[in-house]
Automatic annotation (TrEMBL):
Signal peptide: none
UniProt key word Transmembrane: yes
Protein name: Glycosyltransferase RgtA/B/C/D-like domain-containing protein
Regions crossing the membrane: 81-102, 109-126, 132-149, 156-189, 195-214, 260-277, 284-305, 317-338, 345-365
Membrane in keyword set: yes
Keyword line: Membrane, Transmembrane, Transmembrane helix
Amino acid sequence: MTRSGYRLSLGLIILLAAAAQFGLFDLGLYRITSDESARILTAWGMTRSNALEPFLWPPFYKLFVGSAMRIFPDIFLTPRILVGVTGLVCLASLTWLATALFQDRKVSLVAAILAVLAPQRLIFSVVPLSDIYYFLFVISAAACAASWLRSNRSRFLLLACLFILLAETVRFESGLFAAFLEVLLLYRVGIARDLRIATFLGASVLLFVFPALWALNSFVWYGSLSNLGVVTQQFVGMFGHDYIQALKWAPLRWFIQDTLWNPLTIAGILVVLILSVRQRAMLLWSMVFLLPLLVFSVTTVVSLSTPTAATWRTSGVWTLMMLPFDAVAACWIGGILAQSFRVPRVALAGLLILAILPNAVRSLWYTRDGLFNNETHLAHQERQLDRYVDKKLSHTRAGEALIDSSTNLDYLDVLAFARHPDRLLLTGGGDPIRIGFYEPMRTAYAGRPEADFYLKDRFGLAHGGDLRALNAHHVSLIVVRNPAFIAALDTSPLATRLRSFNDWTVYGLSPTVSNEPWHGAVLKTAPQVSPAG
């Protein structure tokens, strides 16, 4: 295949991937969990004073997306445009990895074709989670490391370490790749003696400077490193010390499920084993970038640090890194099948269709999960709700909408889809991210002061509403989905039901009520919203 033909083919594949991404967005796939909205709100609220606050996540998403929203202040579109472009770059990076591993343009194109509808790439190129950035950086690091192992050029090693550093600023588990690569570097500099000391030191600094600085930053902010264990804290708060549940959600379990969905990956694993026996460079590469899956799985189970949202994504980077090997397997099998066909390309095309279909089905399955509420099985209508609320608020410069933040995390979507999130406030106290942290653990943390501040009903909606609190915060609309709130507001003289959006119900404050509190309401005025420490 000529270089121009290869570039043209790759360009067409990227256009096809862009069309698939836009198709899912146009279908209404705006989210698959509440995590993406929480991250967007964190980035939206970024200031100079809190830019490096290490409460939940590493800083890349807040800094990158937050800076972009300073330039293009659209809380809904800007994060989605960024992940869309990054998803296409990630596809190109996969072809780079395939080329670095196999130097075969046909294999690279087949890997790109397989990546178009792979849910690990497609879904996270549409919903604005941080995973697509993590995938891009790790895959780019893997490509640079493969080039270094084949050429022994130091610049490829340093680039690989730089990409791992970037990955560490997105997800903490990237440190596993740093640790495995460091072991290889220690072997090369201490035993094989084919790596210069200066290169070793430079690479080591790149691999571990961020974890060290982030730990120091955490200690400066909180006086401890407890914030690094919030995932475990949330898992235990929701499920207790349930190691069986953690095992069910282990990354290795999801990788096995990915493999069963696409049997071509089984052939890809065989390719890894065969080439690792034949080629020392492939063996070393596999140890650095594939073995961390096992360690990561054991670590998440033992420490109960399994994410509780879209847990299937935890194996995504390894599933994507297997695509070049799946492509080699497809070419090998296609070559064998071609002997039975008059037109050899028909065999490879048929094999690719069989390999792509399972990924397409899975992508549609995850899309359905994003379109419908898993609890109520009703379609998510937060986007339509926000448009309605924005239209209502646009008629007056004063007035805010009160959003129900109890019993669910969908309020994060309401905030993150809004054109004017600054005119929305929550029934819980404090900032929305900390409310979202404690809400899933409501039962376990009941009665604790640190949780009650975020989880209490500040406006007395369960009793029909506290007029003084509502007036003090200039509330003109009330948006709720808690059944207890709906039942109370339906019988309250303070509120008039305006419209329903599946799970959500919108109320307006009745214009005829006096400024005195209704006797059925909670009379205590709610405190002003204050940031949590």
